[in-house]
Amino acid sequence: MRLVFRVMAIAIAIAGVADPAISVSRPQPTRVTIATAVQPFREEDARRVREALMAAAGRSVDWIERGSVGGRLPCAAGDACVVIADGSVNWAIPPDRNDRTSLIRLDPPGAPNTCISSASVASNQHVAAAGVMAVDVAGVGVAGQHSEVLVRDGDAIVGSTSIDWKTDGTQRISMPWWPIAEGARRLRISLGLVSGETSGADNVVDLGVAVSATQLPVLVFEPRPSWTSAFVRRALEADPRLTVESRVTLGPTLWSGTPSSRLDQRALDRSALVVVGAPEALDAGEVTLLDRYVRVRGGTLVLLPDRAPAGPVLTLLRGRWREQLRSAPEPVGPLQASELLIGDPASDLDTVLGGSDDAPTLMVEPVGAGRILVSGAMDAWRYRTANDNAFDRFWRSIAADAARNSASLTVDLAVPVASRAARVPVIVRLRSMIDAAIVSVRAYSRCGGDERVPIRLWPAGESGAFTGSFTANSAPDCVIEAAIADGPSASTAIVVADDARRSVIGVLGDLDRLVNATGGLNVEASDAARVASALVEAKPPLPAVTAIRPMRSVWWMFPFAALLGGEWWLRRRCGLR
Questions:
Q1: Mean per-residue pLDDT for 247-257?
Q2: Which residues pair with residue 375 across a beta bridge?
Q3: Is 392 helix (H, G, I), strand (E, B) or coil?
């Protein structure tokens, strides 16, 4: 027995010195990042979802919990990701994220509850004119209560309205607001809480607007004097957002207006909007130029007939327009008129602004890359003071919106507010009737007081469009400028803020698009187990061969000491030293 103890002790010592390695095949758990984006008072709900998710996945998933860094989605590259969100936290989603991402949505707060479902506003606004934003609000358990909606630019209130909740549901409100300064402005829309509401995280939305004093060029052309176009021209000339060039043909060699108002290719190329009075007096060459202006350049053309159309202008009109007289003025959209032009039924692509669906009088028709607005309210100028000068207000708003969307050079941004260090996509569009083999477009970004940084542009899918991107730094705003060599220039601005608030629908919508693009699941909190099962099935644990060195364990010291102690005790018992 003494010999056995001695041999075993020596064997342990020799094995410890040799340090043998044993290869073992073990399943490697799937690495999954779990990110939580909820309001503070809902952390307990999120914790229960995490525990249910981990319990359903078992040991086949190695969970890594991460917090938000710099307002970005904290999902590790190369790993699957599960986001637990209630829509209250806005995370910038990396554009190159293609790993499987799933979303678990927490239920909205209980009634009573109000929220801003969505909000939108024109990205560019003139400093001398009021703007209008569309706000969708929703309420549950709020019937009979009252809410205030405020729009703030910094500490200044620039717009307000009130809501009387007659029933639960969603409703859209149009809120006027007034810019207070030029540049990139951050507008905060806040919906007041109703009695008993516990959460206001979904009652605030931030929007970014570029406010400028740039005037857009408009051309008003009358092949013969027309009362309708004369009063429309006067309304547009009084609008600070527009600079109006006009020409009225008084005779074969006699005209009045501004010097640079010829109806030629160069004048049409720089005009963001063209208004034509008495269009039946246009000749074939002028109609061809206007057709190219709409189809090729993508401009907006307004036709103001004062009689039934005839002659070459019929090629610009779809269908047949017939004249009807009324004994008394009747509403045509926001206008009043008694002498009407009634068109053929509108198509699905047309927009009817006045009349009826089967008998349009005031209609916008898409043509090629542009659009044509036909006003059949031929004597609306007679009733221009009705409804608090609705005639002037209508034509000014139509002209300003159309000119802003049809300018010869525009700079558009993919997001209204940028996060710090985020890559912001830029789209530069050149609208021109002049074919050029080579177009030299340059774009720059300037954040705060830094130097201008060039933006590399690449041709996009559509003609005259170029895409690029720039990085927003820690400055509160960035200005993006674009210019054509010996041609037009344009600029816009964007607010930079990590704490910008977005609507719940907008935040969850972005996450849902990411889920669909990466093949993940979008489920409610009660279906968390489905996400765990899908993760395991999509990427089951793979066996990994690892080397194990068992003799490095400290537990070998105990049998080694016991063997030596037992051998010594037996020797002493036998009277040996």
A1: 82
A2: 362
A3: helix
The alpha carbon of residue 50 and the mean position of all alpha carbons in its chain are separated, in whole angstroms, by 30
Contacts of 252 (CB under 8 A, 6+ apart): none
- 425, 534, 570: which is closest to 103 by C-alpha? 534
The helix (H) or strand (E) run that includes residue 559 is helix 557-573
Q: What is the mean pLDDT of residues 64-91?
A: 79
**Dihedral angle of Cα 140, 141, 144, 147, to the nearest 10 degrees:** -50
- Between the alpha carbon of residue 313 and those of residues 219, 223, 299, the distances in Å are 18, 12, 17
Give the residue among 117, 103, 85 at the shortest CA–CA distance from 513.
103
Cα distances (angstroms) measured from residue 486 to each of 156, 410, 441, 489: 41, 16, 10, 9
Beta bridge partners of 135: 119, 173
Per-residue burial over 544-560, b = 16 or more CB atoms within 10 Å of its CB, e = otherwise? eeeeeeebeeeeeeeeb
Asked if CATH classification 1.10.1200.10 holds for the domain at 409-496, the reply, yes or no, is no
- Whether this prediction's pTM lies above 0.90 is answered by no
Residues 216-405, CATH architecture:
3-Layer(aba) Sandwich (3.40)
Coil vs helix vs strand at 271? coil
- Classified by CATH at the fold level, domain 26-108+503-538 comes out as Rossmann fold (3.40.50)
Q: Do domains 113-198 and 409-496 have the same CATH topology?
A: yes
Task: Report pLDDT for 234.
Answer: 94
Nearest residue to 289 via CA among 264, 314, 309, 262: 264
Cα 376 vs. chain centroid, distance in angstroms?
A: 36
Superfamily of domain 113-198: C2 domain (2.60.40.150)
CA distance 303 to 301: 6
Listed range (37-51, 61-75, 167-181, 251-265) with the worst mean pLDDT: 61-75
